[in-house]
Specification:
It contains eight helices and eight strands. It is of the alpha/beta class. The structure holds 2'-deoxycytidine-5'-monophosphate.
Length: about 220
C-alpha cells in the first residue's frame, strides 16, 4: 500500500514551498517543510557554538524540539523561528549540517512519523527517494538557476528590505548549496525515478499547482 503522501522535491528556489503549501491547503492535507527543519537544526547547533566541521553526535542534538503550528510557522524549543531561519547564513549552515548522518537520521525519523500520522504534503530534497519512497505521488520541481536566484532575492528583499545582499551573491551561494546538496553521500538531492518532473521556469505558481492537482485528483 502506498503512503498517503505527496512528495515535492527539488533545488532551492524552485517554488516548492509556495506550491506545496497551496496544494496541501486545497486538499486539506498537512504541510511539512522539511528544509525548515534542517534550518532549525542549523540554528540550534549554531546557538550551541557548533560548526559544521565539528563532530556532531546524538548527544549534541538532545533537547532539540521542533514543532509547527497550523499556519506553517516553525518553533524551535518553543520559539517561533520562522523568519530567523531564512537568512543566507542559516541557508549555508543548513546545507552544511544536513550532510551529517545523525542529523539526517533524526530528522528523517521525525518526518516519517509526521507524514505517516495523517495525509501530508512533504517538501524537501530526499522525500521521494529516502523519506517516503512509497509516497503515492512524487514531483520534482526545477527552474533555471537564474530564475531560482531571482525568486530567492525577491523573497529576501520583501522580508527584509534593508538586507545588504546582491543578486549575484545569492546566485553564487545558491550554486554552491545546490552542488553540495546534490553531491553529498547520504540522501542527495535527486529526482526519484518515478517522480513527475516539472520545469517551473516562466510558469505561474497557480499553473504549477493546477498541474499537480490534476495528477493527484486524476
Ligand atoms: O529547502 P531549503 O532551502 O529551506 O533547505 C535548506 C537546506 O536543508 C538545503 O540546502 C539542504 C537541506 N535539506 C535536506 O538536506 N533535505 C531536505 N529534505 C530538505 C532540506
Amino acid at each position: 500500500m502506498k503512503k498517503n503522501v505527496i512528495a515535492i522535491d527539488g533545488p532551492s528556489g524552485a517554488g516548492k514551498s509556495t506550491v506545496a503549501k497551496i496544494v496541501a491547503e486545497k486538499l486539506g492535507y498537512f504541510y511539512l517543510n522539511t528544509g525548515a527543519m534542517y534550518r532549525a537544526v542549523a540554528l540550534f547547533l549554531k546557538q550551541k557554538g557548533k560548526t559544521p566541521d565539528d563532530t556532531i553526535t546524538e548527544e549534541d542534538l538532545k533537547g532539540l524540539d521542533i514543532d509547527f503550528d497550523e499556519k506553517g510557522n516553525i518553533y524551535l524549543n518553543g520559539e517561533n523561528v520562522s523568519d530567523k531561519i531564512l537568512t543566507p547564513e542559516i541557508s549555508k549552515l543548513a546545507s552544511d549540517f544536513s550532510k551529517i548522518p545523525v542529523v539526517r537520521k533524526i530528522l528523517t525519523e521525525q518526518q516519517r512519523k509526521i507524514g505517516s500520522s495523517r495525509p501530508s504534503v512533504l517538501e524537501g530534497r530526499d522525500i521521494g527517494t529516502v523519506v517516503f519512497p512509497d509516497a503515492k505521488y512524487k514531483f520534482f520541481l526545477d527552474a533555471s538557476a537564474e530564475e531560482r536566484a531571482r525568486r530567492r532575492y525577491k523573497q529576501l528583499k520583501e522580508k527584509n528590505p534593508k538586507m545588504e545582499i546582491s543578486f549575484e551573491e545569492i546566485l553564487k551561494q545558491q550554486k554552491e548549496r545546490d552542488k553540495q546538496d546534490s553531491s553529498r553521500d547520504i540522501a542527495p538531492l535527486k529526482k526519484a525515478d518515478d517522480a513527475v518532473y516539472i520545469d517551473t521556469t516562466g510558469m505561474e505558481i497557480e499553473d504549477v499547482v493546477k498541474k499537480i492537482l490534476k495528477i493527484v485528483k486524476g
